[in-house]
Amino acid sequence: MDLYKNLIRIFLLSLALLFFTCLNFAQSIFNIEIKLLEFNSNPGMIFQNEDTHIVIGHGTDHYEFSFNDGFIAKFNKRGEMINKKFIEGSREDFYWTGFSNSVFDLNSTFVFLMDFFGYKTEIWTVDKNTLNITRKIKISNGMIPDSFYSGKEICQVNDSLFAVVGSVKELTPINTKLEDIQVSLVNIRTNDIKHHYFGIPGKNDFPDAIQWNGMKLIIGSVGKKSLSYSDSENHAMIWEMDLEGEATLKFMTPADSIMYGIKEIVLDDHGNRIVASLKGFYYPQSSILGRYKWRPTVMQLDSNYYTDWKTPVGTLNYNSVNTICCLIPAVENDGYIAAGTISPFNYDEEDHPYFNAIQKGFLSKVDKNGKKMWDRIITVVDIDSLEYWHKIYDLEKSTDGGYLGSGRVTSIDKAGSRSWLFKTDRHGCIVPGCHQEVSVMQLPPEEAHIQIWPNPVRDWLYVFQKAEEQHIYHILDMNGRIIRRFEGSMADETLMIDVSGLKPGSYVLTVETASGKSGRKVFLMI
Predict the structure, then answer these.
(1) Domain that includes residue 278, residue range
(2) N or C, which end of the chain has less CB nearby within 10 Å?
């Protein structure tokens, strides 16, 4: 009888291991393994080429903030780096940003914009296979001598013509000149460049977005007039410009210091302009910090530039400064996905605001009618520090119907910063099924408010919490020893924990909430 029972146990254990192996294989197709890059880095753009992911930004093998080279890195589906190139900087361009978010596929090369922290801006063409730079085209300041120029974004007009938008300011001894918008039309075959300038008189003009609609360039900017040391009057604006340089202002918000500018422009199939505003509405809860409660806003404008709707993205019910990095069409063409960063803050006993130690990344979906569909919060947990900051820098659609993004985590206890990659499904979920509504009555209490994935786990454990409530987590070994401690606080938040240093075996994840809920989940390290 005992032999019979032991055979059954062995059989069931074999089935479990087979199930976990198959499940892990299936999940590895769904999600790349998130890796922190081993060098000091700051990602600017991420995109897919066939079955690889490519990240462009600035970084160095030396953990110093004072010097950064450019880098181009290629990853396989699991997020493992298979090739990287450092492009050595020089004294005049020690910061390489490459934060335009736009990369264009042109035959055997990639085309994108690299900005050297305002020192100079270049269009780069890079060989797809070797990642070698095949051409650099410097975007000069045109006919304005002794000026400061910063390139912001690039768009493609045809197979050879690209348009770059940036801001230019003439430098004078008393520095009284205002900034204008510069649009440079660049032929990457002949290196021919034509520059055009425009802006609002009496204001500094700072562009951020440019798109080609088939007939004209659509340019988003902010016109800024300083009112005091800490306050300004801002107008969000959209321009149309033809290829001859004739620019017309088509859209401008009323004078409003909280409507900061146009960060992204997405053109839909019907000619409507979907626009992401860097700032937007704010929800004051304190007269002290009300003006800092930024709320990025997604707006739809029709072909005549009238507003159809506008919807705030980021967190609605949380004290936070929200910023937006990018806006893209949803994979099912049923809306738009915004990505950005949340900087939470609280108030002390005297109602003075102070920032929390942890910044978080967010994804928000808005449907085509302006209805907010969901928010997803993404946090890479730094076990070695209680103070760390995230920024999401880019988001793109993946070829398998999900989303691929890049970000950066900086810790107060470690020099430099580390890039990280993330992959979600079409619902913005890193943990499969995070979008599903689960009734508390259907599951035991410990299963209802958190999910973990994968199980078994190799390097990274993902924990998804549904409720907006302080969650305190512990990872324990089977002897009850605490191995890791971390916290989560926001609704629909995914916490990503590096467990690669744990030995193979069984572990327990425990959680306690401020309202008294508790639970435990067992996972297996392999």
Answers:
(1) 90-424
(2) N
